[in-house]
Amino acid sequence: MIIGATRVELKSQTEIVITRAFAAPRRVVWDAMTKPEYVRRWYGLRMLEISICEIDLRVGGAWRFVLRAPDRSEHGFTGVYREIAAPDRVVYTENYEAIGPGHEMLVTTTFDEHDGKTTLRSRLVYQSEADRDAHVQSGMETGMRESFERLEGLLTTLA
What we know:
The chain is an alpha+beta fold. The chain is 26% helix and 43% strand. Helix 1 (26-34) crosses helix 4 (140-158). The protein is globular and about 40 Å long. The relative contact order is 0.23. The mean pLDDT is 94.
């Protein structure tokens, strides 16, 4: 895997796998993705402000991020942690609040370190093909790539 290259694969009608390698140790990548003071610095498009960043990092704990657009509209994302094995793996639900309950996806993210570099792999499992397709068509890939670029920049300051 090339550092800085994000790969998005449609694995099935209800599954996407996202892979990205970072030039930072696993513990640093884990911290950047699970501590609100760091998430605020990289999550979302640059044009958006993260107005709420709450993380209760424990099994059964909830997380919630709200992004504010230049037009002052807000876009909330929320979920619940199902499994935490720091710094190797985290499993949680995720839902875009505007579409309401019943469309949560299950996200399993692993952090594999080799020679001081970490490969992040997120497996997103949707409740339906329509949910998967709506997420893909929402521009999620553009937002994810920009967020990962911002995360990479943050990691250089933390590592």
